[in-house]
Amino acid sequence: MKNILEKILLTKQKEVLARKERGLFFRPFWDYPRKSLEKALKTQDFAIIAEIKKASPSKGLIAREFHPKKIAEEYENAGAAAISCLTDEPFFHGHLEFLAAVREVTKLPLLRKDFIIDEIQIEEARAFGADAVLLIVAALSPEKLNSLLEKTYELGLEALVEVHDEKELEIAIEVGAKIIGINNRNLKTFEVKIETSLALAAKVSEEIILVSESGIKDHADICLLKAAGIKAALIGETLMRAKDKEATLYQLLKGQK
Ligand SMILES: O=C(O)c1ccccc1NCC(=O)[C@H](O)[C@H](O)COP(=O)(O)O
Fold first, then answer.
1. pLDDT tens digit string along 91-103?
2. Going by CA atoms, what residue is nearest to atom 8 of ligand 1?
3. Which residues form the Indole-3-glycerol phosphate synthase domain (predicted)?
């Protein structure tokens, strides 16, 4: 039986083929001045990349009421360092248009969160207003990861290179990733263990910016990450379910209102 990543990648291959047949739609954000994700993550004592995500394979529908522009404004007002926006449609109920909509209302660096397997998706990300893309080591051969990273830089974007274990971490370091995301979610069981981040952080030099991803719920989690030398977290569900996103983000960072 196929695991969720394999299923998602099969749909992506079809999506990419269809996109290539249709050709690229160029949008106003093609020449938009880019914001640096690296700089934004370095500027804060602890940085939060706040995620806009309607649904996910592990949790189903997360947000019935879903207004990407409003959520982006709330995140920016609450002090997020950057915004991650899901664009995958079948599994996360995202859309490329959500990325463009969010770009219209925020000055924060914007990450296209999707399963990128082809250069055309990076061109699309830029055209729809992204400053950075997610590249998942588990979804790519090291050669493809390298060529996608080159394309990313060539287009003036940045990459969050995502790993799940030590082997993937070595590949990310080998290709010269500047920002590495450690995903705490096991893609076979959906189990989330923050210890994944804590264990792998010790193996990474200080020049690389580490982002812990998935399952971060409260200030205690952030304290553990900070103690392990991690400078940033990507948080989706906790913020998406919060009625008062500003208060929740503040509590995550400071522990109290
Ligand atoms: O979230 C899932 O179910 C999922 C399944 C398969 C591949 C990726 C998946 N999630 C993507 C993410 O990495 C998360 O959206 C992100 O790290 C935020 O996680 P959370 O704070 O737990 O919403």
1. 999 999 999 999 9
2. 187
3. 5-251
